[in-house]
Amino acid sequence: MQALQFKQAVIRALHDAQLQTALDRGTTRGVNHRLAAMSATTDAAALRHQARLARERALNQLPALLEQLERNVLANGGHVLWARDGDELNRLVLELCQKHAVRRVVKGKSMVTEESELNHALAQAGIEVVESDLGEYIIQLAGERPSHIIAPMLHKTKEATAELLHRKLGMPLTDRPEEMVRFVRGVMRTKYLEADMGISGVNFAIAETGTIATVENEGNNRLSTSAPRVHVAVMGIEKVIATWEDYAILVQLLARSATGQQLSVYNNLMTGPRRPDEPDGPDHFYLIILDNGRGRIYQTEYAESLACIRCGACLNACPVYQNIGGHAYGWVYPGPIGSIITPLLRGLTQAPSLPFASSLCGACQSACPVEIAIPDMLLKLRRDLVQSAGNASLGWRLAMLLWRLGMTSPLLYRLGAALAGALTRLLAGRSGTIRQLPPPLNGWTYSRDFPAFSKGTFRERYRRRAQHAALRSHDHEPATSQRTRP
Amino acid sequence: MSLPHHNARAREEILSRLRRASPPFPSTTADSKPSLVVTRASPDEDWVQRFITEAERARAMVHRVSNDEEGRAVLRELLTRLGARRAITWDMAHIPLAGVDAVLEELGIERVQGDNVTVATADVGITGVDWALATTGTLVLHAGPGKPRMASLLPPYHLAILRAGRILPRLEDYFALQRAADLRPLRESSNVTLITGSSATSDIEQQPVRGAHGPLELHIVLLTP
Ligand code: SF4
Questions:
Q1: Is the pLDDT confidence value at B221 over 90?
Q2: pLDDT at residue A477, as a whole number
Q3: What local confidence, expressed as pLDDT, does residue B4 receive?
Q4: CATH number of the domain that residue B110 is part of
Q5: Residue B35 contacts by C-beta under 8 Å, 6 or more apart in sequence?
Q6: Integer Cα distance of B143 and B132 in angstroms
Q7: Is the pLDDT of residue A478 over 60?
Q8: Does residue B13 form part of some domain?
């Protein structure tokens, strides 16, 4: 997405009253749920570090773990296919549909199939595909895209949802979420039973037994992977982990960070197709492993972004996401982690605005269960963008030169500060605020005033304080004066 | 299955690129294992009580009974109250309460099995429980012969029958047990499900609503001798 498009999308989002209400309600609840759950955890900081180490170990051994996973899936009677990009993924799924004479597909939540726009490819081939996750289903009905990694319809209020269900499916209007959920439940029942193939995502793939694990609350994923005769699971290469001990820690942190639960309602562990003596489950199991740009990231200093477990906590915590929602980010992955992986997966020039869509406040990193250094990577991406654009404009370089001179010379700095202070006070006059800064700074005052700088500079104040403190410390024992901080 | 030719190439391309890169976290070694537990417990914890507290917190309904006779009475009462007509059940050998089939017969409840469409007519599912986890209030169900997945999934009500001896403290302890058995149970079953509470969704404005696609209610009959 180009810079201008991003700006327009942001402005649209900020002026969308329905979206603002939905974001307010949704992200606040998301943040509160996580904080409550983490505070009930024995040793949250140390645990996050262990989770982080589990992800680091897995990424260190990535190619070996993928091969081990493949071996074990085969041993369990399943099949493994590999896709270099989204088109190849879609082609493979279509081939499987053909092979198994599939006419109807029911899908559990999967972000990677959003990357490849699989639904579109299936529909074009005349195959009916229904999203089974409640939020995804409503998004599909609306012809929209998910706006949050785990809460796809976070951008919709309940009123808008009722409206949509009424218009598309004739549901009697209601403002009670319970009634809407009950209604969709009824509609979806027959879809599960009629489907020939179920497609699911993968939250973790456990290499040592060839098991894929999904995490959900609704039961739609269990139904999609149990009722149809063919199950196709799709995962990015980074989803593989080594052991069940790693799984135990990661899955519990995922639930806490995503929804504030100790464990999600259903953690579904699938190891191959149904065995001959089992009464139900799919007859065929396929695992498709997708690269789609991840292997490229793996070779760079951004490999850490592959440690993400897609909990969505950084989205809820981000002041930018809280205000613009997911769609403004322009692709599958929104929020802070999206601002990193979207440019990395699609190419920097495709999303040059995203690394700048952050105040670098660090809320994302403190929310992240696997301690991903999101602000750090955003900065590095900004650097890459400047470098890839070749030389910056002359004016920009001149400004930077002046900046460097000023910042490295105490004398010039003091002079500059005094000058700037005097200038703002002059512009502000008696009111103390400037309604409009002169160009090129007038963008700043587009929707707010600029306060004049105060008379005393920070350095002067600091010096005075230090003098006071020195005087006072003569009256105290040194030991007590050091304990003034709470 | 032998890979189709084009797919073998994709596989090789993806893997060889990864093999060429050096490990991204060189200071992290392969052998450090998680050593902490995720959920709090006091040293003199009563695990049965803890299980009940946590399961109820996750909105499961726990019915504690002290002998089989009481267990059957609770089951009879539940089935009557829920108005059950048809049930999908695990084989009686896998349900740790004798006489469940007699209760069903007595109440005129038909046992259904077979294809999805038939099974979907059941209004109650009755299962045993392989393991339960106290600190999270979780049930662990292994699919297997005589243990259909659908019994805990498709009907609007899921009745799970659990003996207190099957309660472990934590998820970590469950996997330690599997490890001791060489992970065989995890390998042999095509599906292991950890169930914590009844089906729910928070998709509409992040407000929890019970009974999304799975059971509306989860009842646990807990036998504590
Ligand atoms: S970057 Fe961290 S907080 Fe954000 S989705 Fe990934 S794991 Fe969650």
A1: yes
A2: 47
A3: 60
A4: 3.40.50.10420
A5: A50
A6: 15
A7: no
A8: no
What tokens does A142 get? 């609306």
- Considering only CA atoms, which residue is closest to atom 4 of ligand 1? A314
Strands (E), A377-454: 433-434, 450-451
A173 vs A395, residue with greater confidence: A173
In this predicted structure, the answer to whether residue A399 has a pLDDT above a threshold of 70 is: yes
How distant, in Å, are the alpha carbons of A186, A253, A416, A427, B47 from that of A449?
54, 43, 22, 12, 61
Mean pLDDT computed over B62-83: 97
| Number of CB atoms found within 10 A of residue B11's CB | 20
CATH of domain A2-297: 3.40.50.10420
Helix (H, G, I), strand (E, B) or coil at A387: helix
pLDDT at A315: 92
By most ligand atoms within 8 Å of CB, the mutation choice from A309, A318, A376 for ligand 1 is A309
- Supply the range of the domain harboring residue B148: 45-200
The total domain count for chain B is 1
Distance of CA A378 from the midpoint of ligand 1 (Å) = 14
Q: Is residue B206 pLDDT above 80, yes or no?
A: no
Orientation of helix B171-180 relative to helix A244-259, angle to 10° = 160
B15: chain A residues, CB-CB within 8 Å: 63, 66-67
**pLDDT tens across A306-353, in order?**
999 999 999 999 999 999 888 888 888 889 999 999 999 988 888 888
Nearest CA in chain B to A148: B203
- The values of phi and psi at residue B192, to 5°, are -120, 130
- Interchain CB contact of A163 with B (< 8 Å): no
Identity of the residue in B11, B38, B179 whose CB atom sits nearest the CB atom of A82: B11
Residues found in chain A: 486
Neighbours of A120 (CB within 10 A): 11
The interface residues of chain A toward chain B in range 118-137, judged by CB-CB distance below 8 A, are 132-135
Using DSSP, state whether A480 is helix, strand or coil.
helix
Portion 75-104 of B in contact with A at CB < 8 A: none
pLDDT at A453: 86
Report the DSSP beta bridge partners of residue B138: B133
* B205 belongs to a structural domain: no
Q: Which of A249, A368, A377 to mutate to test the pocket of ligand 1 (most atoms within 8 A of CB)?
A: A368
From residue A186, alpha-carbon distances to A134, A177, A183, A191, A227 in Å are 12, 14, 5, 10, 16
- B39 is a domain residue: no
Query: Higher-confidence residue: A286 or A419?
Result: A286
Model confidence, pTM: 0.89
Q: How far is the CA of A368 from the centre of ligand 1 (A)?
A: 5
**What are the residue boundaries of the structural domains of chain A, listed by start?**
2-297, 410-473
Query: A111 with A309: CB under 8 angstroms?
Result: no
Give every CB contact of residue A4 below 8 A, 6+ residues apart in sequence: none
Alpha helices in chain B, H assignment, sequence order:
5-20, 47-57, 68-81, 100-106, 116-119, 171-180, 184-188
Contacts of B146 in chain A (CB under 8 A): 279
Burial A174-207 (b: 16+ CB within 10 A, else e): beebebbbbbbbeebeebbbbbbbbbbbbbbbbb
* Cis status, amide bond into A478, omega within 30 of 0: no
Whether B23 is in a domain gets the answer no
The model's confidence at residue A1, banded by pLDDT at 50, 70 and 90, is low
Q: How far is A252 from chain B (nearest CA, A)?
A: 7
For the ranges A233-247, A304-318, A375-389, which has the lowest average pLDDT? A375-389
Tens digit of each residue's pLDDT (9 = 90 or more) over B133-163: 999 999 999 999 999 999 999 999 999 999 9
